[in-house]
Structures are given as structure tokens and as C-alpha cells.
Design brief:
single chain, mainly alpha, three-stranded antiparallel beta sheet
Length: about 500
């Protein structure tokens, strides 16, 4: 059994590999720069590193080991098992998907591109395979490294177009269901499931851009090549998609769901694109169920890993719910909407974990959720999940240079989301109450001072909303003297 230790030396992650059953004649070291993707240079697993050393392919004193290899050592050192098929657990994989990683390469090497294309071909076949035995064989052939190569392709400037294959979305949904913990589907517990989700969101986004028309695909690619040096592909894709979706929905009546055609659920309008199915309605509901059942790990993954464009998936679920009877206002008689509680829970979790590129969708999809605050149900999985929800609200969505967009998003989120937070408070989170109360009141006073946005939320309405949130908190959760003191100090 190979023993090892891990150090951080001058911001380098250093792995010590002492003798292992006579393989090494002397101690070797491996170092990986934070965020450095070495797969194109080495692409090694543990066995590859050992073989490479023995054949003199790696410097005996400084072995540059792939991040997958270095990660495996790190995971084992922490005492968290790495699954032989699904890879590292969430606590260990999330940190590698940071902004540096998502700002992918401009052009991939031939080997990575070839692997990615073969993987996508197999996923497309999987999406249609009905025979369980054949499905298992095909799914078993898709490795973690293959999925990484597909994600890398989607992050490269010249490769993102390759994902405009609708079958990738359904195939990835089917693969997500394979990842289980104690026989319970939990895709985000391991890197494999997170990668499936990430590929699905990118494939869905580029397919929707194309669905609006070839001219939009060309326009999007121009944006990629123009903005690529300073912005990642998922952010560029999401911002572009927000604009064309908002243009399409600008003439909606409140109860229409006209954008359903972009998924292939109805005939396109005269000005629209092709009629090809992108995602079946049944798959949209299946994906919502998967995310809802795995909501704790899903939410934790979005908070821990840099995942811009996640709300492209919410766009899909939201549109399906509109077709399911979800109302965007109170203009019609109330009706029972299947899966409403699960949708509301996911909507607010998506919003709390939103990245700046998602802000356009936060406001648009949030309109539906805000009209159903009274139907929110307690949904935290456990105390850890409850603490994550409260902490995410306290931290808030990132402030951006586009002040108007930030404030519009905040006004669509902050006056309503405390209802969700308060409904999801469990015993064991009491030490977060002071910060929670301070945040509710501080944001209320801050939003009152914002000028030029009275058409979205008037100052009296903001005050009324803040007071209502505070009263709801005091009503549901018996406040001790320290909490009352905070309220008095913040008045």
C-alpha cells in the first residue's frame, strides 16, 4: 500500500511519495500549481506516474503529477473514500472547479478533443438505448476522465459548438441517476454526477441558442471569440441566452408559457427556429426530481464549485412547471400545481447560489416563485443543509460592476427569499440567528436608498416586507433576549 503525505509549500501543493514496495529508490515529489490543468501534459493516474518514473519520464526529484493523481492522494489522505467509478466525493472535487479551471483553454489538444467527441457519441447512444443490458455496458464505458474531456471541450473557445446535440442532455440525465449512495440516487455526492450536470447545462444552453435560429448561434460564437480572453464560456452562454429569452418573452401575458417551443414542446412561432425536440417534458420533470431528491448535495455543490449557467437548468424546469399549471401572478383562480413545493425549494436554492451571469434568469424565474410564498414547505435535509441555506443568504449574491442589474436582481430576491430561509431553520442553527436578523434588517435599509427602481419595489413596500419577515421569524422561532436586543440595536 502506497503511503504519502501532503504539504502546502509557498502556495504549491506538494505530495511526498516515500518508498512503495521497492518501486521507488528514493523519495520523489510531485507538485501542481493551484488551478493548473496538467492533463494535456501528463494525464496520469497513479499507475502511470509509477511507470513514468521507472522509465525516466519524470524527473526523480520533481514529478509533475496530473491533478487527478494529486487529487486522489489528497482525498485518501483526508480519509474520504474515492469511488472506483464515480471518483472523488463532493468535499474534494468541488475545489478544483474554480474560476481558473472554468476559464478553459482556447484550443484543446487532439487527444482530449478526440476523447470528448467519442464520449459524446456514446452519451447520445445512451440517451436512446432501451435495453438495460446494453445501457449498462455503454454507461460503463464512460469514465470520469472522458466526462472531464467533454467539459473541457465545452470550455474551449473552438469546441463549445460541438455540444449542440440534444441527446447529450437526456443522456447525461440518465447517467446522473446511476450515481448512488447507499442505493439512493445522489449524483452530486461524487464528481461523476457533477460532471454530467455540467455537461447537460452546457449542451442545453448551446442547443437553445441554436433553436432560436442560426443567426443567434453565429452571434453567440462571435461573442465567444470577442469575450473569451476575459470571460468564461458558461457565463458568455448564459448572458447571451438571457437576452434572447427576455426578448422572446417580453410580450407574454402572465399565464402564457410561450418559450416552451424552444424545447420542442410546441410549434415554433413564425419568427422562430426549427421544430426539433431538445428536451422531452418527461425528462425535465425527471431532472427536477433528481435535483430535488439530492437537494442538499446539489446546493452544496453549487455553493462550493464555480458553476455559472446553472440557471439554464432552472429555465427548463420553470418552463415545464408553467405548462404544468404554475401561475406567474394572481390573475386566475388558484389551482393545485403538481410538484410545486419541490419547484419552489429548487428555485430559491438556485437563486441563492446564482453567479452574476445567471442574474437575468434569477429575476425572471423568481417572479413565479414569489407569488407562491405561502406554499413554501420546510425542506432542509438536516442541520447541515439548514445552516448552508442560512449562511448562503447571509453571504448574499455577488455584487457586480453593473449596479442596475445587481439591484434589479436583489430587489427580485431579497424581499421574498427570507420566507424560504425562515421556513428552513432547524434546531442547531441558533448561533446564526444574530447574523440572519442583522442581514434582513440591513438589506431592508439598503434597498430603501436605491433610487430609480421604485417601479420594481417601492420603499414602503420594502419596509413592509422586511417587517413581515421579522415578524414571521419571531412567530416561528421563539427568540431569546439576545435576538430581541439585535432587533432593537438595528432599528
Amino acid at each position: 500500500m502506497l503511503s504519502y503525505r501532503i504539504y502546502l509549500v509557498d502556495d504549491l501543493q506538494v505530495v511526498e511519495l516515500p518508498n512503495a514496495e521497492g518501486i521507488f529508490e528514493e523519495t520523489t515529489w510531485g507538485q501542481v500549481l493551484p488551478g493548473d490543468d496538467t492533463r494535456g501534459k501528463a494525464g496520469m493516474g497513479l499507475d502511470d506516474a509509477i511507470v513514468g518514473y521507472n522509465h525516466g519520464k519524470i524527473d526523480k526529484s520533481l514529478a509533475f503529477i496530473s491533478w487527478a493523481f494529486c487529487g486522489i492522494l489528497h482525498f485518501a489522505a483526508m480519509g474520504i473514500p474515492v469511488h472506483s467509478r464515480w471518483g472523488p466525493p463532493l468535499e474534494q472535487y468541488a475545489h478544483r472547479y474554480d474560476e481558473a479551471f472554468v476559464n478553459g483553454p482556447e484550443i484543446l489538444d487532439y487527444g482530449t478533443t478526440s476523447t470528448a467527441l467519442q464520449c459524446m457519441k456514446t452519451i447520445s447512444i445512451i440517451s436512446k438505448e432501451q435495453d438495460d443490458t446494453k445501457f449498462d455496458l455503454l454507461a460503463g464505458a464512460i469514465t470520469l476522465e472522458m466526462l472531464r474531456s467533454v467539459l473541457l471541450l465545452s470550455l474551449s473557445a473552438d469546441g463549445i459548438q460541438s455540444l449542440r446535440e440534444p441527446a447529450l442532455v437526456r443522456g447525461c440525465i440518465r447517467l446522473m441517476k446511476l450515481v448512488k449512495v447507499h442505493d439512493v440516487i445522489s449524483p452530486f455526492s461524487y464528481e461523476y454526477g457533477y460532471l454530467c450536470f455540467s455537461v447537460a447545462r452546457m449542451a442545453l444552453g448551446i442547443c437553445l441558442v441554436e433553436k432560436f435560429g442560426e443567426q443567434h448561434l453565429e452571434g453567440f460564437m462571435k461573442c465567444v471569440w470577442t469575450e473569451y480572453p476575459t470571460k468564461d464560456n458558461p457565463s458568455i452562454l448564459t448572458e447571451y441566452l438571457v437576452q434572447i429569452v427576455l426578448n422572446e418573452t417580453s410580450t407574454w401575458s402572465p399565464r402564457e408559457s410561450r418559450c416552451g417551443w424552444i424545447f420542442g414542446w410546441s410549434d415554433p412561432p413564425a419568427h422562430g427556429g426549427h421544430s426539433r425536440l431538445v428536451v422531452a417534458e418527461s425528462d425535465a420533470l425527471e431532472l427536477m426530481k433528481i435535483l430535488g431528491d439530492d437537494r442538499k448535495m446539489f446546493f452544496k455543490a453549487l455553493l462550493s464549485a464555480y458553476t455559472p449557467g446553472a440557471l439554464i437548468i432552472l429555465l427548463l424546469i420553470w418552463q415545464r412547471m408553467l405548462r404544468n399549471g404554475l401561475q406567474r401572478d394572481f390573475s386566475g383562480p388558484p389551482s393545485r400545481v403538481p410538484f410545486l413545493e419541490q419547484f419552489l425549494d429548487l428555485s430559491w436554492r438556485f437563486a441563492l447560489a446564482a453567479r452574476p451571469s445567471d442574474y437575468g434568469f434569477v429575476f425572471t424565474t423568481g417572479i413565479s416563485a414569489m407569488f407562491h410564498l405561502g406554499k413554501l414547505a420546510a425542506s432542509p435535509v438536516d442541520v447541515e443543509d439548514s445552516r448552508a441555506i442560512i449562511s448562503a443568504y447571509i453571504q448574499g449574491i455577488p455584487i457586480i460592476e453593473d449596479t442596475l442589474l445587481y439591484r434589479q436582481t436583489a430587489l427580485g430576491l431579497y424581499p421574498h427569499i427570507p420566507h424560504f430561509i425562515i421556513r428552513n431553520i432547524l434546531l442547531g442553527t441558533e448561533n446564526l440567528f444574530p447574523a440572519l436578523i442583522k442581514t434582513i434588517l440591513a438589506r431592508m435599509w439598503e434597498m430603501i436608498l436605491w433610487e430609480g427602481l421604485e417601479h420594481i419595489f417601492t420603499p414602503p413596500a420594502i419596509v413592509a416586507s422586511g417587517v413581515e419577515d421579522l415578524l414571521l421569524f419571531l412567530h416561528i422561532h421563539a427568540a431569546d433576549s439576545s435576538v430581541i436586543q439585535i432587533v432593537l440595536e438595528e432599528r
